[in-house]
Design goal:
The structure is a homodimer of 418-residue chains. Chain A has 418 residues and is of the alpha+beta class. Chain A has 13 helices and 17 strands. In chain A, helix 1 packs antiparallel against helix 3 and helix 3 crosses helix 13. The first copy, chain A, is elongated.
C-alpha cells in the first residue's frame, strides 16, 4: 500500500507528531503553538496541489480546489487540528490530512471537480481548552454567544478566548458583533473523516465506519445528594440519612432506564463519571452526609434524552423521600443530536460495497464539528477510521492501512458529489 | 433537681468544658493536655470524698472507695476522659463523673460498701488519636501488642504512643515486656455510663438506656473497584468496564444482605462511609476506571458478620465478572461483639421499674471500653444517657435531668452489688 496520496498523509502525520510532541503524546492547544504549527503545516503541504488557502476571522483555514463552476455550493471535507494535552496524533488531524490526500488522489487520477472541493481545518474543537462545544465551527457560522469571547478562559493560560484569537491576528470583536464568516447556503455537503474514539470497529474487525448520527447529550455537572453525617454504629437504619446508599440507589435507577431503552432497541448510554463523598468530612466509621456526582446521558434521539430526564427526576424525588435525603440533579446542558444525511449514507454504503471496503454503519457517541454543519441544514456525513485504545490519550493507534481504506471510500464519494 | 451529687457533677462538667475548650467544642487528646487536665480535675474533686487515688503504668487513674472486705473482687465504674478534636464535653467524661457523683450520693445516704467501689478514668479511647481500639483499657490488661507502643503515632503530633506515655511518666517499656497492671480476677463487675451516640433514646423519648451488648464490627478500609477509563459517548455498553456502576451495584448487594438480616430479626448495620472516584483522573465525560470505598459492618452477632463477609465477597466476584471489572474488598479488621451480663441487665431493669425510671434496653452500635472488660470475662453493664445531635461533634447535648435519672439508677444498682 503506497501511493503519492498515502505518502503525503504519512509524511504529514510524521511531521505533526514530531513537531507537536510533548511526551507522552502530543499537545496542540486551541489557538496555541501546536495547533498553529498544524495550520502552517497543512497550508505548506498544499502548495504543489495548487489549492487556494484562506483563513476566516475565527482562524479556520480553507484549502480550496476550485471547481469548473465556482458559483455552485461547495463540498467540504473537514475536521479540527487541536488535540487534548498529551493526546494522540490522529484525533482531528486525520480528517484534515485525509481531505488533502483525497485531493492528491483525485488530481493524480485526472478528476476535475464540477464544484469547489474545500478542505477545512477547524479551530478549537477540544473542550478541554475552552469549555464551549465546537468553538471553531460555531464561530464560522456566528453561533458562539457574544459574551463567551471575553467570558471563556483557556484552561492552561487563564486568558480569554478573545485574547488568544487577537494574539494570532483574528477578529473576535467582529464575531461578537454578529459576523458570520461562513454562509451555510454556499455549502452543499460536509464530510468529516475521524478516528473512532470507541472500540466498536476494533471489536467488529472492520476498518471503516459510516456514521448514522452524532449522539446528543444531556450533561449534569452538579448533582448532589444531601444527607446527614452520623455514627456508623450507633445510628439505627430508620434514623439514617445516608447519602451514599441514596446515590447508589439513584445509580440503579439510571441503569434501570438504560435496561428499558436497550430492551426497546433505543440508542442510549449513561455515565456517572465523577462520584464522590466529601474528603473533608467523610470517614470509614461515619455515615456520609453528602455525595456529589456528574451524569452524562447520550442518545441519537433527543426526545428520549428529555423523556429520560423526566423519569430520573421523578425517581430522584421518590428515592429522596424514601431515604430521607435530598437528591438534587440541578441543571443540565443539552447538546441535541445530529442526524447524518440518509442519501449520503446510502451513497457511501454503495461505494464501499462496490469497491470491497468492509464498512459498517454506526452511531457516533462522541460529538464532532459535523454536528454544527448538520444543525445548519447542510447535508453531512462522517467516516470513522478504526482506532485502538480510544482517543484523548497518547496510546490511540490508527493503522495507515485502515486510513487508506477510508481514503479510498472518500475519494470514490467525492468523484460522485464533487 | 439538685443534690450535692448533681452539684458535684455539674461543677465538674463546667470546669472541664471551660478548661479544655477549643471553640467549637472541646479537645482532649489521648495523653495530651486536655486529657491530662481532666485526670487532674477528677482527682482533685474526690479529695473530700476520701477516695484513694492511684495510677497504673499505662496512665489509667483509679479512685477507690474502700469496702469493708478489701479482699473481695471489686466493682468498677469507668469510662474515658479523652475526646475527639472539637468534640463534645460529655462523650466519655459523663461516665467518670457519674461514678464520682454516685459515690457522693451513696456516702450522703450513709451507704457502706462491702467491697471496693472503684471509679476508673481510662486513657486513650478515641481512635482518632492512636489508631488502635480501647488503648487505655487494653493496656491495663496487657492486651496491646508490643509493637504498637513504638509503631503507633498520634495523628496530630506524629510522635509514638510510647513517647507520649513516657513524657507523662508512664511505663510503656514494662507494658511491652508483658506487664498486666490490672488483674481481671480482682474485678467482679464493670459498669460504664456513657451518652448515647445515636438518636434512639431521643426518638423513643426515653432518658436512659440499658445496653444489651456492644456491636462488633468488620471494617474494610481499602475496598477498590478497578475498571477501565473510557469515552462516555463512544463506548458501547458491552465494551464498558465502568467502576462506578459496578461499585453502586455492590452497594445494592450490601443493602440486600441488610434487608435479609432485618427480615430475620438479626442485629446489623452497614456503612460505606467513603466512596469516591479518583479526582486526578475522573471527568464528566469519562467512564470511571476506579472507585475506592470503605465498608463498616456491625452486629451484636459476630458470626453474622463473618457470614455476611462471605456472602459479600461472593457477590463481589459475581459483579466483577458480569461487569468486567475487579472488585477487591481487601482485608477486614474484626472487633468482636461484647455481650453484657444478663443478670446485671435484669438487675438494672428491676431497679429502673422499682424507681419509675423510664429506661429501655438497646444495643450499642458504637464501641466502648466495656467491651475490653467483657472480653476478659468480667460481668459488664452499660447505661446510656439520652443525648441529642450525636457525638464526636460540638453539638452533642445531654440534659442534666437525664444524667440525674441515669445516676439514680446507677446508685440503686451499686447499693445491691457494692
Amino acid at each position: 500500500m503506497s501511493s503519492p496520496a498515502i505518502d503525503l498523509a504519512a509524511s504529514l502525520f510524521d511531521r505533526l507528531a514530531a513537531e507537536t510532541a510533548t511526551p507522552p503524546g502530543v499537545t496542540r492547544a486551541s489557538f496555541g503553538a501546536g495547533e498553529q504549527f498544524a495550520h502552517a503545516l497543512v497550508a505548506d503541504a498544499v502548495r504543489d496541489l495548487g489549492l487556494i488557502v484562506t483563513d476566516d476571522i475565527a482562524g479556520n483555514r480553507y484549502m480550496t480546489w476550485p471547481g469548473r463552476d465556482r458559483a455552485l455550493p461547495r463540498v467540504f471535507i473537514g475536521s479540527h487540528l487541536d488535540s487534548v494535552p498529551h493526546g494522540g496524533n490522529f484525533d482531528g488531524a486525520a480528517g484534515v490530512i485525509m481531505g488533502l490526500a483525497a485531493i492528491r488522489a483525485l488530481k493524480d487520477g485526472g478528476f476535475e471537480p464540477q464544484r469547489d472541493i474545500v478542505v477545512m481545518a477547524i479551530r478549537a474543537e477540544e473542550l478541554v481548552w475552552f469549555p464551549t462545544p465546537y468553538a471553531g465551527s460555531r464561530m464560522a457560522f456566528g453561533l458562539v454567544p457574544a459574551e463567551e469571547y471575553e467570558g471563556l478562559v483557556r484552561s492552561d493560560t487563564g486568558r480569554t478566548l478573545a485574547d488568544h484569537m487577537r494574539e494570532l491576528g483574528f477578529d473576535p470583536d467582529a464575531l461578537r458583533e454578529g459576523a458570520r464568516p461562513l454562509d451555510p447556503a454556499t455549502i452543499e455537503i460536509y464530510i468529516e473523516p475521524h478516528i473512532e474514539q470507541g472500540p466498536l470497529l476494533v471489536g467488529l474487525g472492520k476498518p471503516v465506519g459510516i456514521v448514522t448520527g452524532i449522539r446528543g447529550n444531556l450533561r449534569y455537572p452538579n448533582c448532589i445528594v444531601r444527607g446527614t453525617y452520623g455514627h456508623a454504629g450507633a445510628t439505627p437504619r430508620a434514623y439514617r440519612h445516608d447519602a451514599v446508599f441514596a446515590a447508589t440507589d439513584f445509580a440503579s435507577a439510571v441503569e434501570d432506564a438504560w435496561d428499558d431503552h436497550e430492551r426497546n432497541g433505543r440508542d442510549f448510554v449513561a455515565t456517572l463519571g465523577q462520584f464522590s463523598t466529601d474528603a473533608r468530612h467523610h470517614g470509614m466509621t461515619k455515615i456520609s452526609g453528602e455525595v456529589r456526582f456528574t451524569m452524562d446521558l447520550r442518545s441519537l434521539d433527543n426526545d428520549l434524552l428529555l423523556e429520560t430526564d423526566r423519569r430520573l427526576r421523578e425517581r430522584a424525588r421518590e428515592i429522596s423521600k424514601a431515604r430521607r435525603v435530598e437528591i438534587d440533579l440541578d441543571i443540565y446542558r443539552n447538546a441535541p443530536s445530529a442526524i447524518m444525511d440518509q442519501n449520503l449514507i446510502s451513497l457511501l454504503e454503495e461505494e464501499a460495497k462496490a469497491s470491497g471496503i468492509d464498512a459498517v454503519t454506526m452511531p457516533s457517541g462522541a460529538g464532532h464539528d459535523c454536528a454544527t454543519f448538520a444543525w445548519q441544514g447542510i447535508r453531512t456525513a462522517m467516516l470513522f477510521i478504526r482506532n485502538e485504545n480510544g482517543s484523548h490519550n497518547p496510546d490511540e493507534a490508527m493503522a495507515m492501512d485502515d486510513f487508506a481504506e477510508a481514503l479510498k471510500l472518500l475519494v470514490r464519494a467525492l468523484r460522485r458529489v464533487g
